[in-house]
Specification:
Length: 207
């Protein structure tokens, strides 16, 4: 202790992976997180918001479910097998989905030109936040998540999502649409236009 005050210990968690966001004509909005390197290992999770706004987390383990539920907002958390195929097919509890991923977007070309360590840094996330807000309404690159956690999104690349199919709880998803309204899982939404973004997500938390 210095001056009689204790300093809180902060842990920095970095998640390297991809986030796919897509809307559907059924009103279901999907956010698929595919994490290749993280403190929780390699895993895929899915956030689902139905047409009524009910938000569900589909997580592969209790550990992942607890961490994600403490960082984002959900009405229901389901622990189940979550499988992601190389062709972007998703099999997760009550969700069956397939996505078609197209070419790199104009934003993706700009991001791809940046050195990955720079684009994924917290400093760049802070600098990029006002630009992201202006270009992509609802998108934030830095903000406060659940339980006082500070979160930073560093985007490295982006591709368009061009098609969607499948079902949620046995009902057809319908056709691909923009991600509107915003699902409300956290302080930031995925871009309105369906996309697959390669990211480094940094979470700073107590403990």
């Amino acid at each position: 202790m210095a001056g009689g005050a204790s300093r809180r210990r902060r842990t920095v968690d970095r998640f390297h992976g991809r986030i796919l966001g897509a809307g559907s004509s059924s009103g279901v909005r999907l956010v698929v997180g595919d994490w290749l390197r993280s403190p929780l290992g390699t895993f895929t999770d899915v956030m689902v918001a139905d047409a009524a706004g009910h938000r569900v987390l589909l997580a592969p383990t209790e550990e992942v479910a607890a961490y994600v539920a403490q960082t984002y907002r959900f009405d229901e958390v389901v622990t189940c097998r979550v499988e992601l195929g190389a062709d972007w097919t998703v099999d997760a509890g009550p969700l069956r989905a397939r996505f078609e991923v197209g070419g790199r977007t104009p934003v993706g070309r700009l991001l791809h030109a940046l050195p990955a360590p720079l684009a994924g840094s917290r400093a760049v996330a802070v600098l990029a936040d006002p630009i992201a807000r202006r270009v992509f309404p609802g998108v934030r690159t830095v903000g406060t998540a659940g339980n006082g956690r500070r979160e930073y999104y560093g985007a490295l690349d982006q591709h368009a999502v061009t098609d969607l199919g499948g079902s949620w709880q046995g009902a057809p998803l319908g056709t691909l649409t923009p991600v509107t309204p915003a699902p409300g899982f956290g302080f930031s939404s995925t871009p309105e236009l369906p996309s697959l973004t390669r990211v480094v997500t940094t979470v700073v938390r107590d403990g």
